[in-house]
Write a structure and sequence with these properties.
This protein is of the alpha/beta class. The chain is about 45% helix and about 15% strand.
Amino acid sequence: MPVTPFPKPRSMTTTAGGAPYDAPVTATVDDTTPAQGYRLRTGPEGVSVHHRDAAGLRYALDTLDQLRAGPDYPEVGYEIVDAPDFPVRGFHLDISRDRVPTRRTLERWLGILARARFNHLELYCEHTYAYRDHREVWQDASPLTADDLRWLDARCAALGIDLVANQNTFGHMERFLAHQDHAHRAENPDGFERGGQHRPPSTLEPTEENADFANGLLRELAGNLRTRRVNIGADEPFELGTGRSKERAAADGLGNVYLDYVTSVMRPWLEAGWTVQFWADVFGNHPELMDRVPPGAIPVVWQYDSPRAAAEVLAEGSEELRSWTRVGSDVERLSAGFRGRAKLLREAGVPFWVAPGTGNWNSIIGRLDNAVENMIDAAEVGLEQAAEGFLLTSWGDHGMWDPPSVSFGPALYGGAVSWCLEANRDLDIAGALNDHVLLDPTGRAGAVLDRLGRVAEVFGVPLLNASPIARALFPQTGPLPALPTLQALAEAGAVLESCRHDLAAADPAAADRDVLRRELEHAIALSEFAVRLLHARARSNSRADGIDPSAAERLLLELDPLLAEQRACWLLRSRPGGLDDSLARIDLVRHELVSAAQR
């Protein structure tokens, strides 16, 4: 039976009569072949590869290796013509939301990314690199060091992946601004109000001095890497125009203040011939600035909820919609997907990338349906509007409680659809996980990850940027607009129970199989705890004083063993810094249960 390589190629035909296993391989440089593309033929006469560049040759030989692994290789001849939809296919891993990966975990990620044909990797950094002059900021974070980055850069180079420096330079700087040496850099040194809550300062005041400070961080980080590209972040400067820059924003316009600062950060890099990426959220709200994007700068359009998810929240008109509106989110725009902002950039002639998400964060076990739809939307619009890159993001909001393996399936899918959307749109994610990542001949391990990722839909509560499981465990991520029905909770519990049984019967052969099994068993247990917590809250609707005390006592008895196992599983893949901060995020639920139990 013919083998179908992963990712599925653009075109593949087969004939009777294949090549011997020891047939010579003839490689020919062919300028008519697309960049990174190849034409591969196997047959009785041998194996030939036509390619334009080293990347094309790499992918052709990877495909050949997969074909040779098939039992019928000598009997089947192949002709494969293949090339990527997007020249840059990137993966973006958050290492600043408490969880900093070990080298072993980074190596595991590289194997998956290389298999999925990613050629670009970014580790999102705020405070988790050991900057020479800023020990007070990172000393408790178990940060990556210069040696770590140089090692990772060499491993990436060996796999045809560009490792790109990523350091936020505007918003999300709270870890720096919390320290006395940097407090003066804040737009609002005393903090700010957002969504009815007071928050600590997180945004740099847009000054030349702060641009120089940010560039000092970037220079130190990028100095460890080969690639002449940086990502300066610059997303979500929530306080911009509300504090020290308020008068300037009123006089010149918020968009102009934003772009002036971002340009001052980019300028030295662009003048030196580097490419500079920046997030396009603020920029996308100011179409009048499109013609001011300097050559070499790449706005990255991000969106992490599918158009369907946003449309469902709009249709419900619930507290979920109102809570997002209060913090300035345009849910109606989100329901249109990537198209609006991408179209603006295309019409302005500005090169840009699209950035969907893996759906792992604020979820525990993922939001796979949303992630797949989000990636398809990004790929479709990116192709339609001629985006130059596809950057799949894996974030870690609120302490990154999800295990890394929750993102393995979305990473495979994102790599496949950014390579060739039409060939891989209907990819069997569970099968790809079993065959290429988990190595499970029973097929159960991949199926478990796939089913776990789809539990969020079972609850029947439309949400943005979170699953009901995470909202139950971490109320600070936002209230549930409605509790799931008892029937939905029972159905979710049944799916989780079946996943636990199937995981016990799975037989993955991957080197991290024991870690995988343990972390998924724990993620299932956490999710089952969330279901029981939601059930207790649903039952409490008939009570004036909240959760039944006996139910609260039972849940409290479960909580400490779950936290101990969360700690143990974390340390199997991640460094210890940040773990206590992450675990502390469950305190609101603990206080809720203690109060209920004492009544």
